[in-house]
Amino acid sequence: MKKFEFNSQHIVIFLVSLVCISQELFLTRILNLKAWNHVVYTVIPFAMLGYGIGANIVLVFNDFFKKFQKERLLAVLLLLVALTTLGTAFLLKDIPIRVEYILSIFANVNAVGMLLLAYTIFMVPFVLIGFVIVYLFTNSPQESHRLYFFDLLGAGLGAYVFFPFINNFAVFHSLALFSFICILTAIWLLAPKLKWVLALSWILLFFVCFFITSEPAEYVIDPRKGWEWIPGNFKKKEYEHLVSRWHPLGRTDVYRMKGASGSRVYQSNPGTFEINLIPLPEFSYFSTNFLAGTPVYAMSQAGLAQNHSQIRLFSQRMEVAYTLLSKPKVLVIGAGGGRDIFMAHTHGATQIIGAEINPGIVAEMSPGGKMYEYSGRIYTSENTKVYAIDGRHLVKTLPSNSMDLIVLNGVDTFSGLSSGAYAYAESYLYTKNAMEDYLRVLKDGGMINLFRWAFPDMPREELRLHAIALAALKSIGAKNPWDHIIIGLHGWSIFLIKKTPFTDKERAIVYDYLTRHNSIVVYPAPPVLKKLGGPLTTFDKYVDFFKKDSQHSFEKYYPYDISVITDDNPFFYKYYRLNSFNPFHTFALHHTGPVIFLTQALILLQAVIFIALFIFIPLLVSKKQGIQRMPGQALKPFITFFACLGAGFMLIEIPLMQRFVLLLGSPIYSLSVVLAVLLAATGVGSLTVGFLDRMKKSTEPPLTYMTAMLVIYLVILSLAGTRIYDFFMQFSFLGRILLVSGIIFPIGILLGTFFASGLRLISRDHKDAIAWAWGINCGFSVLGSILSIIIAQFQGFNVVIALACVLYLLALLSFRKLLRTL
């Protein structure tokens, strides 16, 4: 029996923790496909809340479950985890989840009901997983530090295996595989000697999973997704569905637009589809999660001949930069379907480098992909190299003064935004640090050519970009930064940012070109526009304040937040102010709007309700002797200690995932490496608790030294900033992974000692309180996850890490008091 308790407990806790993290990431992908990230961000925390509910069930009903044999109970629970894992995915696929439910939550009973339904469906498997883990901890308190090691080791591996699994098996097949592993483990627990049953079951289940069933293609989608949801906005005869590919950023689909449907799309979104081919050739459309889209034209010889399409130089607004550049070296950030690469070729570019963060697009545009021949092999055309990597990372690897033109054509990185449960409105492409990187790479006379959404009624996104460009130019030593910028407007805002000042001749050429293409030059505003006044002269007004170094006064009173953002607070899309937020009258404008604040307010409210339910109610109603015997003076430090650990861990984890995006080259790599290494290292740290207790030579608890080292380490890491990693950008991918792992591993080791020490302390005389500790930890983890994003939006991620240090210092004080009172 002892052998069973040691081996099986570790295997079960490792497995369910692996399934827990992986399942959360897979379900996130389903939600990202169905709805806007606002909805996803609201629902995701319920995974952690469900985990806490499972802990509370153990707290209240553990005596009841003691009646059952441990092997059989664990086997039944694993079977339920397997069934609910698949069941939750299938139910989420078909229930309507809409951003409208968030917008009308205070006015529409149906909205409340639908969100509660989504929450309930999402939570069920995590309630079971939380129950299994806390049940094992509660019934083996002396093993808590070892169990915590296997718990976090499984969670870390779950974060890692998500990526190869979704790339190779898609979503439902991956979840089915995890479910089958749970079923087989349950069979092993019930009948460990029947190995032939295990082998036969594996073969049959594998056959059913991979050779009979198919990956579901149809989902119930939020109509708010927009026209990129091709099946919801076009009749079946108007398009042909060519590709559907899952990858860590979501699902990428390719649709070939037939007949008049292509012309209709072009007329309604001309900026998205501009290409210097007349007439327009046939095109297909990449759509990732029905949001991040890019056209791919039939640019092969056969494709161009089909519509008799011919190159017409300087027929499009987007060619404006080439009026000043001859045979340039071009960097395209967001290569997409290759349109900007094609246009660079038509203007005699001697070198073209592209960055495309979406692995689904790169796979289809590369040799062997369905769009490779269709696009005229544009990704491997002469003098062209496209990298499957984040654009900022690529820029950091390029030598200074090496490029003539950098093109960012409406790169919104929606797929990057949805890469993880906590990514929200970040973009490292449009920060002041990013602009400085672009300017460093440019030769003298080189330009950045940006195309962004325009809001002519009241500039906001484009005005923020103007402010960022001015600040970056000033930081690199430009004497008169305002002389380096030209802004045009026609549906989209057109930015030209030159490393050296525009000459009068160059300015005249650009003005004439934009005017002939029905665009308005809004900066520097011509005399006629200045005389008329109005919102379009705001760019000049901002410069007037900038020249006096009083731009902060302008930003303070402007209706929208147009302040300069940095890599420490890269929330480019958050330009609505908090004082414009009214929870009873809010709206979603594409990917922005006050719905951002409503989403965050709802999660905060959910966390507060959860904390009330799982901290105070158990204290009032539970009759557990372990809790009842706890001294009254120990209750406050007990709650404070585990609350600080829950919130503090998230305040460290989320900034770390953000910090290493640029070094690793993609948010998916950062999520995988940081989460896997941090969790595994935290598990290793828990194993050291017993050793540290035996080795201590004074009455000072080891946690004192762990806290001091953690705070010092985090402060140094914050002060060093991200620029310190620029030197390592040229390292191999494996080298960068090892570097990040080496930086994060000590943090995990230190963090792992806290929770294990707390469990070890309370398990001596109050083992029933272990489940309560888990519930507190889970509730405040949700609170910490949302607070980290809210604080970062207004103060930056360094402030988030500073707050985490304060929480761990408070945890230390609480632990010391617990030592004295228990």
Question: Strands, helices and their partners?
Answer:
Blueprint: H1 2-34, H2 37-43, H3 45-65, H4 70-94, H5 99-103, H6 109-139, H7 144-190, H8 195-212, H9 230-233, E1 239-247, E2 250-257, H10 260-268, H11 270-273, E3 277-278, E4 283-288, E5 292-297, H12 301-306, E6 310-311, E7 329-333, H13 339-346, E8 351-355, H14 359-365, E9 384-387, H15 391-397, E10 403-409, H16 414-417, H17 432-441, E11 442-453, H18 461-475, E12 485-490, E13 492-498, H19 504-516, E14 520-523, H20 527-532, H21 538-547, H22 551-557, H23 595-621, H24 625-628, H25 632-659, H26 661-664, H27 667-695, H28 702-720, H29 733-762, H30 769-795, H31 797-821
Parallel strand pairs: 7-8, 7-10, 8-9, 10-11
Antiparallel strand pairs: 1-2, 2-4, 3-6, 4-5, 11-13, 12-13, 12-14
Helix pairs in contact: 1-4, 1-6, 1-7, 2-23, 3-6, 3-23, 3-30, 4-6, 4-7, 6-7, 6-30, 7-8, 7-27, 17-18, 18-21, 21-22, 23-30, 25-27, 25-29, 25-30, 25-31, 27-29, 28-29, 28-31, 30-31
Characterise this structure.
With 822 residues, this protein is α/β, with parallel strands linked by helices. The chain has 31 helices and 14 strands. An 8-stranded mixed beta sheet has the order 9-8-7-10-11-13-12-14, sandwiched between helices. It has a 4-stranded antiparallel beta sheet with strand order 1-2-4-5, with helices on both faces. Strands 3-6 form a two-stranded antiparallel sheet. Residues 1-6 and 415-425 have low confidence and may be disordered.
